[in-house]
Amino acid sequence: MSPAYRMTDLTGAEALWLLEGARSGRLVYVPRGTVLVRPAVHVLEYGALVVRAPVPLSAVTQGGDVTYHCERFHRTSGTGWSVTATGPAQELADAHETAHYRRTLTGWVHGPHDTLLRIHPLTIQGHRLGGTAGTGARTADDGGPGTR
Q1: What are the DSSP calls for 63-124, one per residue?
Q2: 5-36 pLDDT, tens per residue?
Q3: Which of 74, 99, 122, 132 makes an SS bond possible with 141, Cβ 3.0 to 4.6 Å?
Q4: Helix, strand, coil: what percent of the chain each, to 5?
């Protein structure tokens, strides 16, 4: 008999906590009407996401919101979580701040598509996946404190 799974909504505070504990995800943006998804690394500081991704800056900051998504799933147990944050993005312009994040956010080779952005999330949504008979306790497998 296969286990039953359920998906439950996360509170905003829990979604932020999981996002803060994660290091990588995907940046989703829409240049010229086409949805593009790129791998990225991030840090959550002072309520904003600082993201480093291999994307052309002009395509991301042309207006409109961008979305950042990260998730952690354990293949064997089927448990995990998913968090999505959406809001406006701006280029990091300060030279000292840019140098700091290039050192601390391991990214891709520096070049025209090595972009540092600050996203100010207007919406943050999240879901937790788990078995119906589970205890609800967070583990390293599903993105709890053991993943930090």
Answers
A1: SS-EEEEEEEE-TTT--EEEEEEEE-EEE---HHHHHHHHHHS--SPSSTT-EEEEE--SEE
A2: 789 999 999 999 999 999 999 999 988 888 98
A3: 74
A4: 20, 40, 35
The Cα–Cα gap between 12 and 30 comes to 25
Structure-token match 């030279």, residue found: 95
How does pLDDT run across 76-93, given as a tens digit for each residue? Answer: 888 999 999 999 999 898
* Tokens 């979305």, located at residue: 67
> Tell me, what DSSP letter sits at residue 54?
S
**84: its two tokens:** 């999505």
Region of 77 (left: φ > 0; alpha: ψ -120 to 50; beta: rest) is alpha
* Pairwise CA distance, residues 125 & 68, whole Å: 11
Q: Helix (H, G, I), strand (E, B), or coil: what is residue 102? A: helix
